[in-house]
Each structure stands twice: as C-alpha cells, then as structure tokens.
Design brief:
Big_2, 4 domains, Immunoglobulin-like
C-alpha cells in the first residue's frame, strides 16, 4: 500500500513509530491535536498513466482491493526528538502517526466520473475520473486520483448447479454466466473440462461434451458410466480493465444414474385433437430399469426424434415434439417418436412408438371481426370489485393468438363481468341454429367442469339478452379442447341457438365462487363447429 504524506513540504521521519516523545515526562499543559491527514489506498496503480498518485477502480467493484484509509498526524509534546517523529510540518513542528481517523471524504468527479466511500472502501459509480481528499476538523489530507473503468468480471456461474442424477445417453446442458462488478450478468464464452470427483481423470469414453470456448456445453454420459461422479468446470480469462486479466472458474457436479432406458413405451398425449394453427407438445414415455425399481418416465429431449407422416395435416419439430395443425384441417396424421440411439436399448426393448393426431376443421367459421364493423364492450354488474375487461378488441382483431382478458380479482360472489361483441349495425342477423360461442384459454390444471361452472355464453339482439347457456342456465355449454393457441391451452365454449341474434357475450356468473381469477378470450364466434357436450 502506498502512503502519501499530506503536503509536499512534509518531511518523512522514521516510519512505523506511534509513540509521542522519547518516554520522558510529558508537560501537563500539553494537548494532543490533529494537524494533518494522510490518505492512502489499496487500489491498483493506474496502468494507463505514469502518475504515481493515480489509481484504478472497476465500475461498481466493492472489494478489499479498493480500501481507502485516512491516518492522522498529530502534534508532539515539547522535547520530542526528531528521530521519534513521523513527519515535520511546513512550520517545523514534529508530527507523529495518531492512527486511522473517521474523516469526511470530498470526491470531485471529472469526465463523468463518480464514486462514493462506504465501509472503508471506495466504489466507482460512473466511468471517468475522481479526485478524493479527506478532512477532519481543520486537518486536510493529500489528494488521490482514481480512474474508473468499465465493470469487470468478478465471478463465473455454471448452471444448473449440482443437478440431480443423469441417465446414460441423457444430455444435460450447462451454461456459463459472468457476474460483473456492477451487478450485471451476461452469458460468456468459457472453456470446459470434465473430471471425476476431486479432479480425478475420467476413464476414456465416460462422457461426451463440448470443450468450447462456448457459452453452453451439452454433456452426455456414455454407456458404462453408471454410478460415476462427473464434475463439469467452466473457465474464463477476462480483461480486468487495467492491463491485466481476471481468471474465474466454477463447477457443477452430478452423478450418472444406474438406470438405463429399457424400452420406448408410448407417446403422450394419446390421439389428441387440435384446431388448425394450434399446437400440441408430445412426450415420449420410456421404461427405465437398473434403479431401485423399474419405473416409467419421460425420455429427455435429445434422445428422441419426432416425425409426422403427413406434414400437410400437421408439422412437428423433430427435436422437441411440438406439432402444429395445418389448415384447413379435417384430417389425421401419425406422429412417431424414435430413439436417436436405438442400439442403446437392451434386446427386446421397443425403440419407436406412435399416436394419431387429428386436426379438426376450423372451429370459429363465422368470427365477429373488427374489420367488419364488430364492436367489443364490457358489462360489470353487482358488487364485482376490481372487475374489468382488458384489451377487448383483441377478441375481434382477426388474430387467433391475441386475446382479451376478463379479470375478477376479488371474485364473483355478488356480481358479473362480461365481454360483449356485437356485429356491425348494418349487418344481417345471425340465423337461429348457428352455434354461438367463444374460444377461451383453459388454465393448466383447471378441470373442464370447473370451467363450465364458471362461465356462460349468451346471445344478444340490439344489446338485449336473447338466450344463454352454461353456468346458472338450463342449457349446457358444449366444450371442444383445441390444443395450444398462443402458448395457452384453448377450448371452444358454444351452444346451438334457437333464435336469431346479432351479438354474443361471455360472462363470469353471479353466485359462483370462482377458481378462475382471469379468463383470456381469443375469438368471438357467430357460428362454430364441433361443439361437443360437457365432459
């Protein structure tokens, strides 16, 4: 640590002495007084300049490497020997070190620089330069200058951290993230190694991984590695902003399960139905043996490849198993899952499985659209505190993936909240016998019966109720599950009308203690198809 004396005229004495005088009797009239301060820091010299009084700070770095200290220089009793002094003032007075002081710091920024001192450390707040001095009473210190540079890497994080056991041929991907001195994080390129416990070398062929440099490394244990402990380590070397480098490493440890995939049993969900444009995510279910007991479980992505027999009916992402219905619908295709490494399955094990995907005809065959003059509104009745309908026009914008949201934050014990959609004033009435309805989101885990007990659909004529079905009504709603639309499970709620109408409403109903605080509404349908009776 550099020690810089307070003023250019101070003469350094014998360093390290803190006594006052030579041990003789001190004058009873003598009072110790603080005369000056010496300011010093543990920060590194600024490599960009030859100025010995300029130091470097990384933006936001809070570290013992950035300590700043103000040490007092006090007067000495009469008769003190010059050899016992630490400094001589410009007036010729002998001064001694009287310890660290709780001084006040004055920080002056330049070129945008800013900093603050806390807990004995100086921390850069903005890139630029700052000059720091300390004061206490009438005593002042020398000045120190700091160049504040960009934030530097202070830590490397490898995730996931110590994940659960991984099966043979299962791929787990590790990611390197840099943590910077200003608290920000970002993915970073790292080099990767794989070792055993305690850094021991792994037997050849134990694991396959990407050594990088890369932000991620996929790691796949190989046959014969069951029970092995594997340590994945990421390492980086980064610029420290001051002519040097910062080295950082982090590790994550997992074990290879004794389980092996014995057979690909089936594809789930079995024989699903989706609308054109909707998606469904398939999962391959396998049987695992070698653990405490045989079990069934999802086969991880990367071990299965997916195919659709007829991509004109539905397409599927080979690596994820997400299938999408293709218009116009009204057809079926076979979805097949196949193991990427069929040779890893013991003799007699199944390596493929399939299911049938049905893509229905378009559900909302006569949507009420903003472009055709349709108008969306809301109706709130009773004591429905905080109830609202947001983004109403999203239910009539012609985009099947956008939605209006009916919110009931307090519940609907004493009120109702409705989204109303009316056709253009000049439009002809929609004929009796049409299946009026709405396409809504069905929250995960919510039973169909719960959805039907909460919502009702009604028709309108000139803004007045015509007929209704669903909750609290004698006519039941039909429900058709449509797969995933806009990232949400979707369903068509509809009923066959008996009278002409020019508008439709979907309502949270009075007297229902709703388990559904919000409902998202994708489309309003003047006529729809494939409405099935309640489950």
């Amino acid at each position: 640590m550099k020690i810089l004396r307070t003023m250019a005229l101070l003469v350094l004495g014998a360093a390290g002495l803190t006594g006052c005088g030579d041990g003789g009797v001190q004058s009873p009239d003598f009072t110790t007084e603080l005369r000056a301060l010496t300011l010093s820091t543990t920060a590194a010299d600024d490599a960009s300049t030859s100025d010995p009084n300029q130091y470097f700070l990384a933006l936001g770095l809070d570290s013992e490497a950035n300590e700043i200290t103000a040490v007092g220089l006090c007067n000495t009793p009469p008769g003190t020997d010059e050899d016992d002094a630490d400094a001589i003032s410009p007036d010729g007075d002998l001064l001694v070190n009287c310890g660290p002081r709780d001084a006040s710091y004055r920080i002056v920024g330049a070129n945008g620089g800013a900093a603050h001192v806390t807990n004995g450390r100086i921390i850069g707040d903005a890139i630029g330069t700052v000059t720091v001095t300390a004061t206490e009473d009438d005593a002042e210190s020398n000045s120190l200058t700091f160049r504040i540079g960009s934030a530097i890497v202070t830590e490397l994080q490898v995730t996931p951290e110590n994940p659960p056991a991984v099966s043979v041929n299962e791929t787990i991907t590790f990611t390197a993230t840099a943590v910077f001195s200003d608290g920000t994080t970002t993915p970073i390129q790292a080099t990767w190694t794989a070792t055993g416990a305690g850094g021991a070398a792994l037997p050849a062929g134990t694991v396959v991984f990407d050594a990088g440099p890369s932000n991620t490394t996929p790691v796949t244990p190989q046959p014969g590695s069951q029970g092995q402990t594997i340590v994945i380590t990421g390492s980086i070397s980064s610029d420290n902003g001051n002519g040097g480098t910062v080295e950082a490493t982090d590790s994550s440890t997992f074990t290879v399960s004794n389980e092996v995939l014995a057979s690909l049993l089936r594809v789930e969900p079995a024989n699903p139905v989706v609308a054109p444009g909707a998606t469904v995510a398939f999962t391959a279910i396998g049987q695992y043996t070698g653990g405490t007991a045989p079990r069934e479980g999802a086969i991880p992505a990367g071990q299965v490849t997916w195919a659709s027999a007829d991509t004109g009916v539905a397409t599927i992402v080979p690596t994820t198993g997400v299938a999408t219905g293709v218009p116009p619908g009204g057809a079926q295709t076979t979805i097949t899952a196949a193991l990427v490494n069929p040779g890893s399955v013991p003799a007699g094990g199944q390596t493929t499985a399939n299911t049938t995907l049905t893509v229905t005809d378009a559900q909302c065959v006569a949507p009420l659209l903003l472009a055709q003059g349709a108008v969306a509104s809301e109706t709130i009745t009773g004591l429905c505190v905080g109830c609202a309908v947001a983004n109403r026009d999203a239910s009539i914008d012609g985009d099947a993936t956008t939605f209006a949201t009916i919110s009931t934050p307090v519940g609907l014990l004493l009120g109702t909240a409705s989204l109303n959609v009316d056709s253009a004033p000049a439009a002809a009435d929609i004929a009796a016998g049409s299946r009026a309805g709405f396409i809504v989101a069905k929250p995960p885990g919510l039973l169909t019966a719960e959805l039907l007990s909460t919502l009702s659909v009604s028709t309108r004529a000139n803004g007045a109720l015509v007929e209704a079905a669903g909750a609290n009504q004698t006519t039941p709603l039909g429900i058709t599950l449509l797969g995933v639309i806009g990232g949400q499970d979707a369903a068509l709620l509809s009923f066959v009308t008996t009278q002409p109408f020019d508008g439709v409403s979907v309502t949270f109903n009075t007297g229902v203690a709703s388990v559904l605080p919000t409902v998202n509404v994708f489309q309003a349908c003047g006529n729809s198809v494939n409405g099935s009776p309640p489950e």
